[in-house]
Design brief:
By secondary structure, this protein is α/β, with parallel strands linked by helices. The protein has four domains: 45 residues; 106 residues, Immunoglobulin-like; 206 residues, 3-Layer(aba) Sandwich (Rossmann fold); 38 residues, no CATH class. It has nine helices and 18 strands. Strands 15-14-13-16-17-18 form a six-stranded mixed sheet, with helices on both faces. Helix 6 packs parallel to helix 7. It is elongated and about 105 Å long.
Length: 430
């Protein structure tokens, strides 16, 4: 910009000098400067012609700890070479370095580069828009063209394998009847619907299929022998966190793999709770259990129990964007939704709450046949928070199974070691 103003000032001074003096030399200088400006303007305009940018992504979903990849191609379809083209990307994905300067792009030539970004943070992000900027060799003029197309990228929370997570038999879905052989469907048919990919053959309603000429599946009432409900506490005032800054390098990450060797979670009860919920959902769904989800965030999030990969995808996408903006304390939320849970349902509560009232509610649900399991996030280990030990004592006194997770714990270990001995089933964590 400064150079442009300098050139304009020079042109103005030469014009004034030429018309004021009337000398041929002054007019020749004025004509020369005017010619340079016009040629530079044409050059800068021509440098934008015939440019086509394409961006290709392998998937519009990623996961924390995995690498997101996309390929960009800048093609010059004109007959004139481009000295330089600046590609500037406005994606809000952290660490996504797409912008670059392409030099000496020949006619009918293509510049291609691949971007590989470690997904560090869950959420929904926007890829694009992109601007293409170029100018003349003297840097007098600069033209910018926007490519407004954008795409959405969903980064789901990380998941941890939980081979050691094994609630007591009486608290598994179905309680003591877990040892009985159960089909994938219940005996109570509530309706029919169109077939969906992934439905098992024993769900097919053959009379309706024969009548309509297309596959029809049976809808079943919720099977209490298989239901696992997860309740994730997103009450804003119950959360705790400590200052944290993301690592800016990938020195501990192998570039030759598609996944990081280890995942460092922010010191936040929210992020720990989301990761635990995602890991437990994966754990039970891989065991062919029906898993449902409840949470009170900005709005009430409720997903009815179901099996399969589609259910896991649905839950992970919700957990990708959920925020701790809830205004309903966990005790009130459990009282509202607990009344709708069927007998023998397993309810896993993930919370940092130190309000002992929710323990009383969970104990009341047990009296109705709902088997409660608590995953207690020790808020004081994450940041300023009330003492969590009275809640743990209340769970122990009530005989409710409890897992305690502290900041920095290995989640597979924290959710995989049950205490031995007589008494309440409590997860002991260092």
């Amino acid at each position: 910009m400064r150079r442009s103003w300098a050139i304009f000032l020079l042109w103005l001074l030469t014009a004034i000098f030429a018309f004021a003096s009337g000398r041929d030399l002054a007019f020749n200088l004025f004509y020369f400067v005017t010619g340079v400006i016009l040629v530079s303007l044409f050059w800068a305009w021509l440098n934008q012609r015939g440019l086509v940018l394409r961006r290709t992504t392998r998937s519009h979903r990623s996961q924390v700890g995995k690498y997101f990849e996309e390929t960009l191609e800048l093609a010059n379809h004109s007959r004139w070479p481009k000295l330089w083209v600046e590609v500037h990307d406005f994606s809000d994905l952290p660490g996504h370095q797409v912008s670059r300067v392409v030099n000496s792009l020949g006619r009918q030539a293509t510049s291609r580069w691949q971007v590989r970004t470690l997904s560090r943070r869950r959420g929904r992000f926007v890829l694009g828009p992109i601007t293409l900027s170029s100018g003349d060799p003297l840097g007098i003029f600069r033209f910018t063209r926007e490519i407004p197309e954008t795409a959405s990228l969903v980064v789901t929370p990380p998941t941890v394998d939980l081979p050691g997570f094994s609630p007591p038999t009486g608290y598994l879905p179905g309680g003591e009847s877990v040892h009985r052989r159960t089909p994938y469907v219940t005996s109570s048919v509530s309706g029919i619907r169109d077939y969906a990919p992934g439905d098992s053959l024993n769900r097919i309603h053959w009379p309706s299929t024969a009548r309509t000429g297309r596959l029809i599946s049976k809808e079943f009432e919720l099977d209490p022998l298989a239901d696992v409900w997860m309740f994730l506490d997103m009450y804003e005032d119950a959360q705790a966190e400590a200052p944290w800054s993301e690592a800016e390098d990938d020195t501990v990450m192998p570039w030759l793999t598609r996944r990081a060797e280890r995942i460092e979670l922010p010191p936040s009860t929210v992020e720990y709770g989301v990761t635990i919920a995602a890991s437990l959902a994966q754990h039970f769904l891989q065991a062919d259990r029906e898993v449902g989800f409840l949470s009170y965030a900005e709005t009430r999030e409720a997903v009815q129990p179901d099996r399969g990969e589609r259910q896991l995808t649905r839950l992970l996408e919700i957990l990708a964007v959920i925020r701790a903006s809830g205004r309903l304390p966990i005790a009130e939320a459990l009282a509202l939704d607990g009344a709708t849970l069927a007998r023998h349902t397993t309810l896993i509560v993930i919370t940092p709450s130190t309000d002992e009232r929710w323990v009383t509610v969970l104990r009341g649900l047990r009296a109705r046949g709902v088997h409660g399991i608590a995953v207690l996030l020790a808020g004081r280990t994450f940041g300023p928070a009330p003492d969590w030990t009275p809640v743990l004592a209340g769970l122990q006194a009530s005989g409710l199974p409890a897992y305690v997770v502290k900041n920095g714990d290995d989640l597979a270990e924290a959710l995989g070691r049950l205490s031995s001995g007589v008494g309440p089933r409590v997860m002991a964590v260092r």
